[in-house]
Amino acid sequence: MAQLGRRFLPLAFALLLMITGAWSPATFAQDEPVGFDIGFEAVAEGFDQPVGITHAGDGSGVLYVVEKPGTIHRLADSERVEEPFLDITDRVGSGGYEQGLLGLAFPLDYETSRVFYVNYTDLNGNTVVSRFTTADNDVADAASEQVIITQEQPYPNHNGGQLQFGPDGYLYIGLGDGGSGGDPQGNAQRVDTWLGKILRIEVDPAMVPPGQAYAIPEDNPFVSQAGALPEIFAYGLRNPWRFSFDAETGDMLIADVGQNQVEEINLLPINADVAFNFGWNPMEGSTCYLNPNCDASLFTLPIMEYTHDEGGCSVTGGEMYYGENLPDIYGTYIFGDFCSGFVWQGVKNDDGSWTMSNPVESGLAISSFGVDEQGEIYVLDINSGIVYRLEAQI
Q1: DSSP reduced 3-state for 328
Q2: Predicted model pTM
Q3: Please, are residues 219 and 170 in contact by the beta-carbon 8 Å criterion?
Q4: Domain for residue 316, yes or no?
Q5: Is position 367 within any domain?
Q6: pLDDT digits (tens, 9 = 90+) for 40-53
């Protein structure tokens, strides 16, 4: 991999708009942005439109890279393993910018259960979340698919796509508002649809009643409300393309892609006992969208945000850093923008507010962030197919 080396590029706006987005000035930020300086070490190349990277938590050190056309490849010892870990291109519809194989999650007991979960759009453009089994040769059995949920998508964009197991062991699923522009069906504010939501479900086969694909956690906020879908954990989201959990607090950080002006980062406490409503589409970030006189007090506002004039057009979340190689950013949130390639550091202040750093120019079309088992952060460039790791700037 000597031809990769370190890469510190000037700003290069991406031509491919896989996920559209937006920001407005954060009135809750501190007076001055924090300083931030980071580099990007090219680790491996040859991936086909990578959109996700994660590990299985099994001590192997292997990373798994999700490729939009419908494959997952392993990254072992800084090399791309040629044999796919999973190939489901025969059932994945990836023709649209925001369609394809979009998410991958390993349960906390993967080392013994040998099952994992993916999120993709099928040949009809609808969302499918499925479980697969890993065979004895450490390659997934594509024929082992068990569909967990399906969601009809009215438009080809805003599919969400993120999957992640929380520290509570439940599977969290991000779904966009169904697409088009401006949420024409009002899905994000409705509680009778999964669109525009974060779902939380129990998928452990030992906890799921016979004949069912999943169970509902009894403390989900809408579990007893008539007319509401019990899988919903949070709502009012436009396109939560990427979210992650803070490994220390358990809280979820959601990067919600905006419409025309505002890109936002939302905080969802893991112990939330009510359904958080993040405001789309009455609001875009902390700005009124549909009605200039909207009541912002009805919604949970972002902890950080940026405008298109200042930062790009499509936010990509984002991981808390708890690794060992970069002590200067320990305990901070690292996220970026797909269009501009900007990367920011989000710092939590003593009063609970958050401050955004000045941006670093990566020159990458950032489709996703992820961490390895040691907590080091990786960044994907969908255009070049290269995986980068955050390193100290030299």
Answers
A1: helix
A2: 0.92
A3: no
A4: yes
A5: yes
A6: 999 999 999 999 99
